[in-house]
Design a protein that fits this description.
Elements lengths: L2 E6 L7 E6 L26 E4 L1 H4 L8 E6 L13 E8 L13 E8 L8 E8 L2 E7 L7 E8 L4 E3 L1 E4 L2 E4 L8 E7 L4 E8 L8 E4 L9 E2 L1
């Protein structure tokens, strides 16, 4: 499958460009700037892409889903202009040392679309007793997250801070407590995940919570 490894342009432009490579195993976006690590085990597979600096938004756009199709180019567009769907999992920073006219740049139309995910929202807890680093992944609906909070069975709600990508941190000791998580997606929808982690959770574990999310979409060129 063709993998879009760099997605360039901003939503304010009349047209956007995407560069590509022919990797069939998503190596171009594996272990990327969103922190998802292995895209297969996290449920993203090979339909993934790295976003430009403008679209990446310092990691806030991680997990967002897009529909993309070739636009108005007889050299690159296949008949019928069928769409591709992918999740943003990495950053593609500009490289001024590369030419702008190589054969991998294709004009595209794109729009945000709902993320169709299976297996529930996943919380992977890393760190140590005094530092909790939680990776939030496999989010349906808009896919990208703006706010995360955690609550132990002995604490109130604790606001977490984005560390990088979709890794969120707090410095409160939570070991030995069952955990709740509250996630607010970029469209303002709030999902509270009850008793996601049991009392005996361990660092490195991944827990899942099931929810249904819906969003609307808007076309951009």
């Amino acid at each position: 499958m063709l993998i879009l490894s760099c997605y360039q342009g901003s939503q304010a432009q009349d047209s956007s460009e995407s560069s590509w490579n022919e990797a069939h195993d998503a190596t171009g976006t594996m272990d990327g700037a969103c922190g998802y690590g292995n895209l297969y085990s996290q449920g993203y597979g090979t339909n993934t892409a790295a976003l430009s600096t403008v679209l990446f938004k310092n990691g806030a756009a991680c997990g967002g889903c897009y529909e993309i199709k070739c636009w108005s180019d007889t050299q690159w567009c296949n008949p019928g202009n069928s769409s591709m769907f992918f999740t943003a999992t990495n950053l593609c920073p500009p490289n001024n040392a590369l030419p702008n006219d190589n054969g991998g740049i294709v004009p595209v139309l794109y729009r945000r679309v709902p993320c169709q995910k299976q297996g529930g929202i996943r919380f992977t807890i890393n760190g140590n007793r005094w530092f909790n680093l939680v990776l939030v992944s496999n989010v349906g609906g808009v896919g990208d997250i703006s706010v995360v909070s955690v609550k132990g069975c002995e604490t109130g709600w604790i606001s977490m801070k984005r560390n990088w990508g979709q890794n969120w941190e707090c410095n409160i000791v939570l070991v030995g407590q069952s955990l709740f998580f509250q996630v607010t997606t970029a469209d303002g929808m709030q999902i509270t995940s009850y008793d996601v982690a049991p009392l005996n959770w361990q660092f490195g574990q991944t827990m899942a919570y099931f929810s249904i999310l819906l969003i609307t979409n808007k076309l951009h060129r």
